[in-house]
Every structure is written in C-alpha cells, then in structure tokens.
Write the structure tokens for this entry.
Amino acid sequence: MPKRVLIPNGHGARMKENWVPGFVKAIAVGAAAGLALFLTGCQGVSNGGGSSSGGTQAGALTAAASSLDFGNVPVNGSKTLTVSATNSGSTTLTVSKISIAGPGFSLSGATTPTTLTAGQSATVTVKFAPTAAGAVSGSITIASTASDPSVTVALSGTGTSTSAQLAASPGSLDVGSVVVGTSGSASGSLSATGGTVTVTAAAANNSQFTISGLSLPATIASGQTVPYTVTFSPQASGAVTGTLSFTSDAQNPTATEGLSGTGTPAPSHSVALSWNASTSSSISGYNIYRAAYATSACGAFAKINATLNTTTLYSDASVIDGTAYCYATTAVNTSNEESSYSNIVSNVQIPAP
C-alpha cells in the first residue's frame, strides 16, 4: 500500500499527492508552478514520458514488378503487358492518379481515383506500339495516399524494322457444306517473303472454325511455307463466315484469311419394308420386329409398330445413323393369335452422318 508523502515545491508550499490505486499518481503543484501529471510504474503503464496511443498507419502500395520489358516489337505493331499494384498495408488507401511517360507507351484499364482496401490489388494494362525503330524507355507513376505517395514502374522496349512479309493462302478458304453435328476441314498455308518471320499466335474470330497443324511459335524462313488445317464444325444450318488472324513479327504484324462454310441439316433416313401377305385365313394384320445387328448376328427383337399393321408395307423412320438392323414380321389373326417370325432380313445398314 503506497504511503502519503509531502514534498516541498521550492516556493514554501506543499504539494498534495493523491494516489489512484493501480493506475496513476497525480501530483497537484502550487499555482505558481502550474499543473503536472506523472505516471508511476503501475500495471500497464510505463514510466517513460511518451504517449501510450499510436497514430493511424497509412496504407502501403507495392507494385508487382519494378519494370516491364516489352522486348522487340515490330514498328507499327504492338504488344501489351500488365502490372498490378497491391495495398500491402493494413489500412485503406486511394490511388489518385496513374500516369505514363515514354514514346509508344499507353495505358488502359486504369480508373482513378480508386480505393484499395488492405490486400486489394489494381491491374494496369500497358501497350507498347513503336512508330520507329530503336530502343525506347518510359515509366508508369502511381500516385496515392499510401505512406510512399508515389510508386514508379520502369518501361522499356525496342522497335524493330523489317521488310519481311507474312501471307496466308488462299486469301479466302471455303470449307464447303458440312452436316450439322459433324466436322469438315480444308488446308491452307503461310508463307514468308523478304526475311524470316516468326508467327506467335493464330486464332479465328468464330468458334465454329478452329486451326490445327501449326505449332507456335512457328519460324518461317524467307521463301518457305508452313501448312495448317482449318476445321469447320457447324452448330446450325446456314452459311457461316469468319476471319483467321496470324500474329507475327513481320512488317505486316497481322495476316488474315477469310473463312466460310455452310451447315446443312442431317439427312433423315428410314427403312421401307414390304412382305408377302399371309396365306392363312382370318388374318387381321401384322407386327413388325427389329433387332440391332452386330458381330454378324442379330440381337434381341422388339416390336416397333404401335398398332397392328393392316397392310404389307411399313416404314421405319426411327433408325439411328451408322447403325445396322435386322427385321422380321408376324401375322396376327382375328383370334389375336400371332405366328412365328417370318424370314429375317439381316444387316440393313443405315448410312453414317
């Protein structure tokens, strides 16, 4: 238990001390000396003179890369890269401005001001489109309310000049008529003139056309050709068009080829059956039986007519393309008695799609 003491204040007055149990010791000093508060070494309290409460820490903005190198890009061509900036601090920050410097460099996807909570990122897309040959440098500057108010990402790239040309042949590729649900294909080729060309990408703007047979990146020496295949898989009946684009380091960075094809409906197949009438008396009609044919034998027969067939003709329109069947008939009299199977017709083949 602390004890009460009296301490001179240097002016003949006495200081009154009051103990606040377990927390602070407050000393009231005479009017001439003003008022002072002192903290003792009680629980949770330091004898030091600093404040026990800290200020709010600003967010910290960190770029995923300190530099972006676009490498060699053909003059009048372009290349895009992305960089993200993350709030690596513990408090929210605001990105107020994103600016870019350097010839041929441009920004997209950057909206300011934007707020980033702790751990949240923003991505910026940078495009390099050189208009002249030579090395170029630049930078992105991101301004924010972070503890470091400005973050910089260095940019570099080289514009390259070439007389090499890339061409797709034929200029328009028609795959022709293809049954819906199936695929058809046609061949094309790429050629380089005036220098070696490296093709880095190839894609059609219509998903019903796909390209194969071209391993990317593909390097084509001047005067050489590389073949490829275009496959057309129509999803509906009717004419379909598209464009196939090839990206390269040629002077013309994108070579194109027109694509076309026509989707046609799948043919409707049926099997026409006929037989001789039964010579038995009191025949009221016939039943028709069908079985799948496989491995040189007929499977189990099942009746396919919903009602008794009163003629000696029947058309089976429920066949499946690419399947083979066996057929037989029976005769039914007025007493509803059914004969055994007639002779069996085997391996009736339905054309594939």
Summary: The longest strand covers residues 283-294. The chain has a mean pLDDT of 85.
